[in-house]
């Protein structure tokens, strides 16, 4: 059975937040891992500009993935193009909540966690975000854990920017096992970091 992963883009998203896990998971898919990974937007195929000016074209509209990954970007600047603006407008948080209600597991990188919190999914749950936004995350009702990746079962959050690679490797561990995650980590020359596992997280040997 193929696990589907969709990474949702929005204007002002941080490029590495999205492309870190994207590259990990696409590398794994090429090596035979039972997964697919694509970039999506709420409105369907189209060009989206990241926080640093990189333009990417989404591959389709948000569907019904096994995992939905939310990048951050622009929160600290209170930018209208970015996670802050998306949280204020509310459409993306509603889509995240709807996807979760339909059975999708949710993952975030950096300040994408604030969009997950705005969706009402982090109240009383352990989570992490970029260290500059940990106070905002706590005020949103999350139990802040300072770790690269926090696994709380159907909700997984990662810290700032480069921790998207750690998130991708951890999701890969859950999807295809630790051996595949280690193979991709070696190929990409990424050192696998420890992950905070809550009681709700699955225990995977070597993961």
Strand order of the largest sheet: 2-1-5-6-10-9-11
Mean pLDDT over all positions:
96
Order of helices and strands: EHEEEEHHEHEHEEEHHE
If helices are DSSP runs of H or I spanning 4 or more residues, what is the number of helices? Answer: 7
Work out the strand percent.
Answer: 15-25%
Radius of gyration: 15 Å
Major beta-sheet overview: 7 strands, mixed
- Low-confidence region ranges: none
- What is the fold-level CATH name, i.e. the topology? Rossmann fold
Number of domains: 1
Name the CATH superfamily assignment. Answer: Class I glutamine amidotransferase (GATase) domain
Q: Percentage of helical residues?
A: 25-40%
Corresponding CATH architecture: 3-Layer(aba) Sandwich
Q: Return the CATH class.
A: Alpha Beta
Please sum up the structure shown:
With 207 residues, the chain is α/β, with parallel strands linked by helices.
Description:
This protein starts with a strand and ends in a 10-residue tail after the last strand. It contains seven helices and eleven strands. It is an alpha/beta fold and 207 residues long. The chain has one domain (3-197): Rossmann fold, CATH 3.40.50. The relative contact order is 0.17. Helix 5 (134-139) links the parallel strand 7 (126-127) and strand 8 (143-144). It has helices at 15-30, 83-89, 91-101, 112-118, 134-139, 163-176, 178-188; strands at residues 3-8, 35-40, 47-49, 55-57, 67-70, 105-109, 126-127, 143-144, 149-151, 155-158, 196-197.
